[in-house]
Amino acid sequence: MSVVSCPRCQIALKKARLGLICRNCEGCWLRFEEFDRAVLASEDSLVGAGLKATLSPDSPEIDLTPAVHCPICTKRCRRFPYLVDSGIIVDACSKHGMWLDDGELSAIRTYCRLNDCMPDEPKKKVGLFARLFGKKA
Fold first, then answer.
1. pTM passes above 0.70
2. Strand partners for 28
3. 39 assigned to some structural domain
4. What is the pLDDT of residue 122?
């Protein structure tokens, strides 16, 4: 596999057990099925999967305004509010997955728990985020 670069910092993303993470801005790239597993996982599991750095929004110096491009196909990701009323803006490539800036994964997990909108169990082929893009099982 070729080097996959951070869409924010343009440095090589580090492979985690669940997705890819940027050592600089602490954002993470997750495929759709990885996203569903990350939302359902315990915080200890996420730490064990190498995503500890992205759980706390502690990189305020990172400019989040520029458009994000998919680190896989380099097409511009679509930016939209996660589940409309969450107040969380995500960037996603309809083919490859989504980019979550530092702290967004925790914010989504909290929102989903408080609003009873957790994704399907991982054993199902199509999770919550994939359904937003009309993916079929």
1. yes
2. 21, 100
3. yes
4. 53
